[in-house]
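Reopening closed ticket. The problem is back. First fold of the pair:
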Amino acid sequence: MQAKRPDWLKVKTSWNENYLRIKSLLARSNLHSVCQEANCPNISHCFEQGTATFLILGDICTRGCKFCDVKRGDPLPVDEDEPGRVAEATEELKLQYVVITSVTRDDLPDGGAYIFARTIREIKRSVPDCKVEVLIPDFAGSFESLKIVLEAKPDVLNHNMETVRRLYPTVRKGADYQTSLDLLSNVKKIDKSIITKSGMMLGLEESWDEITQLMNDLKNADCELLTIGQYLSPSENHLPVAKFYHPDEFAELKTIGERMGFTHVESGPLVRSSYHAKEQVKYIKAYHEV
């Protein structure tokens, strides 16, 4: 049974000039945003701040995770011109920080890694001062695919764990807990200069001990930045919310994460992986100054 949504999760939306400008540009450039495709509750806030997370490799996922609202099915062929259009949009919007993510493409030999790499390079060529974060799928555990992405020198490599080990078979169809952890730990084996990040959602029958164990596992995998947010069921066909965590509980998890040694923890009911991503620039600078 779905729990009743509390008052602190009511989102005030507004559609100002920045929102309309970015939405228009995405449509005109034939680009997708995970903000729109996944029905993110922060879409108006982020668009108003002049930021967006680009969704590459189409808008159809080959997996069927029961928490996600992205379409699933048989994807279209890879659009080889997409990296250039993302770079052009980044330049036109004068973005200082860009997040690039994708649907999962199990149909591609490298999972789409080379398109990630080309997109990173195109952005850095067009806007040299722009920081680039990539939020990648698990590439079915491929070390070589991960290496292809990292060789393009993203500033942040993000891969979301999403949930605790016990719930993986139910929540993340086709994924594996240890595979995702290994992907994150392999980043530093390839390039120690690249910052690692992951995210988790709460409200799917996990226990407090399981949450802190996941955080500990991430820290042991050399993850530096962590986002923690509330799971919101997109529809009655998705997994129901078992619990709505109070803002005080998110604040406590932030404190726990900081004590564990994460460089930064963004924790709150409406936090998503790309929420306040632009502000991560200061943590990148601080990291390199240490």
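Second fold of the pair, where the issue appears:
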Amino acid sequence: MLLVLNTGSSSIKLALFNAALDLVVDGTVTGVGGAGHMALGENKQNVTTANHTEALDCLLAGLTARGIALSEITGAAHRVVHGGRSLVAPTRITTKTLARIEAMIPLAPLHNPPALAGMAAVTARLPHLPQFASFDTAFHAGQPDVATAYALPRAERDKGIRRYGFHGLSYAGMVRQLGANLPPRLLALHLGAGVSLCAIKDGRSIATSMGYSPLSGPTMATRTGDIDGMAVLRLAQDHGFDGAATLLNKESGLLGLSGTSADMRALLADTSPEATFAVEHFIYSIVHQAGGLIAALEGVDAIAFTGGIGENSAPIRERIMARLAWLGEKPIHIVPADEERQIAIDAMALISAT
């Protein structure tokens, strides 16, 4: 069996797959670093963990309690948000790989350190397991330079300041699930707490809305989406670097516009002018981004939705498509986000190749 981990700064998500890539059980620990909660299958309980290793201990103990022998686990695979320019395909974790992931921390300070913590936790508790990583940036790595370069001097671009794109595991899973129904030109929308759009041509990403970080693109749950660089500098001047980073990433978006909630379900049920405007801003920003990606594709053959909002909110899908009615009749796909299975598939392929 294969253990798949998606590690956040204060959480660990776990999914266990058998050799046929069927999900055996999934679970999560939240509140890592203090009092939190663990859910494993249908079981839920309060837990207190000091670090990610203790959180993994809780999950492993839960697996054992379900009658799953840890000796049956043959590998561990991890989601890593940022692979930079060098890690552009799933890979086995080695000392060299760890160093490369660590080198990307300046580009993803909120995301790569937790992934490394998850790897360290597995090494501490299951040191015999081979470990693997899949990267959210990898799906976009083949984009042309004209799509990834910012118009900066060469010295700045050489520091790695460029568009990378994210949600790549979600988009790779979408391409896999559509299979024979994959159109030549697909506009893909990942709508959740994070929001991005991707122009997929013949199964490959040619442009996407997220850039150097997951901040850019449409309005998101708590992220601003696109914002002028000079406005960012003004916010940094007013609030300091850390304060501005918190404001842009955690206090803006739907939450900032509505003043009450980042949850789309709550906002759709709220008739206040602020909530109504937040939802309209969300839809407008998505349609605005969609136009540019459709131009990059030179037309579109189908549109696909995924992510928590994309899969579950018919009103949002309908309002977006109403604003895109000028495209004419196009097939619409709703594709379940399946990032953990995609990570498992990547790791299984590497295992089979050895």
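Update: turned out to be a display glitch only; the data is intact. The longest helix spans residues 273-297. The CA atoms of residues 267 and 279 lie 7 Å apart. Please close again.
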